[in-house]
Amino acid sequence: MRSGVRDISVQLTPQEEELFDVLTKTLEHEKLDTVLRCAGGWVRDKLLKKESHDIDIAIDNKMGQKFAEHINSYLSSRDMKTGKVAVIMSNPDQSKHLETARMTVAGLELDLVNLRSEKYADQTSRIPTMEFGTPEEDALRRDFTINSLFYNINTRSVEDFTGKGLDDLLEHRMIQTPLPAEDTFRDDPLRVLRAIRFGARFGFKL
């Protein structure tokens, strides 16, 4: 598996520093062998020096709701305000009961999800089954390379498991898919419109 770690600094706001401090101290307090990563739009926007409030936390070995409970356990131990947890269930026919947990920590709303992979029943199927995945599998299932980057909260480093995301974002300024475009757009035709929208938004080539 490609590690994809790159020595690129990400400038955090005081709120983000507070949030990540809570998350890393949750790991210590709860004695968890868990890796936490910011995924997708937040990483892209921070590297482009743009403000971002779209914080998705990808978890390598736990469901979102369970990790939210660990966060509240740590906050409670420090007599800090705990967060209300909202659970958004995925389609059980497609996701094997995976879910997203949403809560507010340090004044920032975040979604907690596990790393995911997509499996197709056969070559004719356009509806994937979502399963637990590796960081590389999660990166490769995403729509575009610029949205496939991770920020590893444990190590405070940027990870590019496709090997293309950072170059496409910062050098080539280009919208391309992690997997062959024909496969990506056939699986979800709406991604064609998303490509056009991102190209216009950032002034990137298609």
UniProtKB/TrEMBL annotation:
It comes from the Eukaryota. Keywords: RNA-binding, Transferase. InterPro entries: NT_sf, PolA_pol_head_dom. The keyword RNA-binding applies. One of its GO terms (biological process) is tRNA 3'-terminal CCA addition. SUPFAM superfamilies: Nucleotidyltransferase, Poly A polymerase C-terminal region-like. One of its GO terms (molecular function) is RNA binding. Residues 37-172 form the Poly A polymerase head domain. GO terms for cellular component: mitochondrion. Belongs to the tRNA nucleotidyltransferase/poly(A) polymerase family. This is Mitochondrial tRNA-nucleotidyltransferase. The lineage of its organism: Eukaryota, Viridiplantae, Chlorophyta, core chlorophytes, Trebouxiophyceae.
